[in-house]
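Quick question, first post here. What does this chain look like in 3D?
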Amino acid sequence: MMTATEIRQSFLDFFREKQHTVVPSASLMPQSPGLLFTNAGMNQFVPYFLGVWTPPWTPARATDTQKCIRAGGKHNDLEDVGYDSYHHTFFEMLGNWSFGDYFKKEAIRWAWELVVERWGFPAERLYATVYAPDKSKGDPGEFDREAWDYWAELFRSRGLDPDVHIVHGNVKDNFWMMGETGPCGPCSELHVDLTPEGNTKGSLVNKDSDQCIEIWNLVFIQYNAESDGSMRNLPACHVDTGMGFERACSIMQCTNGFKDFSRKPSNYATDVFRPLFDRLEVLSGRKYADVYPAPGSKKVDAEDGTLQEAIAFRVIADHLRTLSFSIADGILPGNNGRNYVLRRILRRAVRYGRRLGFTQPFLAELVDTLVESFGQVFPELAARAATVKEVLNREEASFNETLDRGLELFDAETASSGKVSGEFAFKLYDTYGFPIDLTALLAEERGLDIDMERFNRLMEEQRERARAARKSEVVRALDLKTDAVTEFTGYDVDECAATVLEVSRQGDSLFIITDKTPFYAEMGGQVSDAGLVEIGGESYHVMAVQQIGNARAHVVEARPGLEVKPGDRVHLSIDAERRRRIEAHHTATHLLHCALHQVVSPDAAQQGSFVSEDRLRFDFNSSAVSPDQLRLIEEKVNGWIEESLPVHCTERAYADVKGNAAIAQFFGDKYGDVVRVVQVGGCRDGLDGVSMEFCGGTHISNTKNIGLFKIKSEGAIASGVRRIEAMTGDAALEMIRQHVVAKSLEIAKAVEKIKEVNYELADMGLEQVPVPTIEGKPGLTALGASDIRTVNDSLARFDASVEHFKQTALDAEKKLKKARAGQSAAKADALLNEWLSDAPSSLIQVAEGAGELLQELLNGLKKRQYAGAAFLLCVDSSSLLLGAYCGKDAIADGLSAGDMIREVAALAGGKGGGRADQARGSAPQDADPQALAAAARNIING
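> Answer (accepted):
Ran it through. Tokens below.
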């Protein structure tokens, strides 16, 4: 039997024999801004399919095993993990690729050769799908006769009927599209019949059955979907295939060499997962059993500990893989986007870890086992294993505290209300980082219902807010290839006349290439310019600027009446005010880099940057930067700004400057004969500035035009890589204003809370809490200051004052809570003295008061060792709270406080529960306390 490692290598070796270059897996951090994670093998090859990049391989073929995650967004398998044999959040996708080289014939024949002839899959258990559009529904493309014919020939060679073993698939199952527009085409999938008899004759294909699963998808990219819904044939056709590695391993390892299909193959019953299970068994003292719920079901009997633990084993192993590979690729758990998805996955793993008895961090203990299995294939995992462990330990330790707090909140909420409201479930999710599936697990364990309708409504409101802020992006095939050359004039002028060289229509857009332009196209981290192009006396907004080889295209909307052709004269003008803000942020980025070298380390090298009109982002390799270092960096950058240093941009022979260590050289790995040096300060030709870098971007002429420079944030984005975000000029002032406004609102909220507390303390006759004051006006001072030291000192004083206000409000609430408890205890003691004066065998009473009084009454009964049964109702202006107590005599008579609460509360539509000796619940405010008291009396008296 082949091991998983051997299966993977066999795939890569097979395609190496077919003249494919074996390429490494791309990072799980996707290139496309529209993806949370790399979720398919084709992601890294999109630029080749779009014609943006030329394949560097001869012939133009590649093969790889790609790390993929599907957890969040459109492709999300998270909720299914653990409950069946084949869903994962992390998986490997084996693939082979052709970029305008071979097509359907070779792809299909090679798939058959590997699966049937080399690996030995029984041909009679294989079913191929081909695309068959339903024209009555407007499905795109045509029936894929070519693929059908190739498959038919192969099935016939094994004496099999192609009409049985080739299944027609619809547009949903067998037509692949990158987006609403762009490259697309039919696909042909290979399915395996896993039933014991293996004679389903294709009836289970594409029926979501784990008895017949797809293992390989061959995508034939031959069309471009146009914005009008039509399909245009691509000039070059491509092949994109993907095989599920774990699925292939399960079939090959779980069928005794394809001889025994009596046991359903499982991805988890392979050596992909077995080493992790072995380690988990050692750590937990539990044993893994390869058992599953009924197909399609997620219901697990609370008494079935073996099945619950089996699900936990699978969830933990899967999630550990997702977390470890992501962290190794620099994606860390966090609070937004893909980072939050990772944090949610980690917390889900921790919650399932409780089922195996883990109450302390344990995930990091599995990392070495994972590295042993995958470190040679994915060397980045081995290289960053220490970082992976550190992050897992930190996150897990933090969430264990959060989980304990969440369980406490959950118990408190359900004890008083007997249900899980949608608002509370959403609060756990939004405030405490509890995904709804964790809340559902807690509710299921306690037999409680969740108001999912309300929760989903709150979630949808949150999604609507997110959708309103989201920018959509259309992927299209760019057919433009040109030998034209555009001269960039934007270093010197903001507008110019130009001659049109080429015009190409792409959907609803025109790509206009001119002989010269002041428009900058995004590169080197600097965003593209915006502006206008005047054509025939009419002005059109330039929606985008795209570099195509040595030419620059201006993208405008193809409006009715717009006519432009090669040879026409046009006038191009950028948004100059926006450009100046971009230039200020770009020059400030150079100064920031220089300050980092002086303050943090000369080895703090740039790892990436982004420069726009309202902010800058700078990534660099370093350990954490301290607050004092950040202040010094700000002071240095602002000092250079205040010196009004000239900014010189000169072209130099690369040979003359390549050895100059004072010039930062990271614009690219390769340089031409002439490079552009951007120098801040010093003489124009002296190469003696405070900052010097190779840079092709645009810059201001003098640092005085930058304005105030202010750092917004500094933090880690990957192991050893930090990120600083900063703003200049008006954007920096607006950031400070927003900070002061937000903090002022916090002060107002704290003051309001203190006043509310003082009103209640006054009613109790107790001393009130003094409301703090702020010396001076540091917030206003920060807003009006022009030098960074005054800004920072004022903000520090202001922020300290805010914290003082918040702490005072917190102390006031504690004082009030203590006072309430004292009053409730005294009142409870007085009531119990009155109620128990004649030593009744049972006690049923109604009192005015809130939850504190009810708890003190129950505590008092326990403290007095009351032997009988008691049922208490506390009524206040907003609720009706129920409490039950059973002493030793009452319990001996068969009474239970928990049962009593559940029965009485249910009469009024309320809920509750608890232990046999003490329980609490609630009923609707309009319920009749006397009727409930009477019901309790009937229960107690039998």
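Residues 788-835 form the longest helix (48 residues).
Residues 469-479 have pLDDT under 50 and may be disordered.
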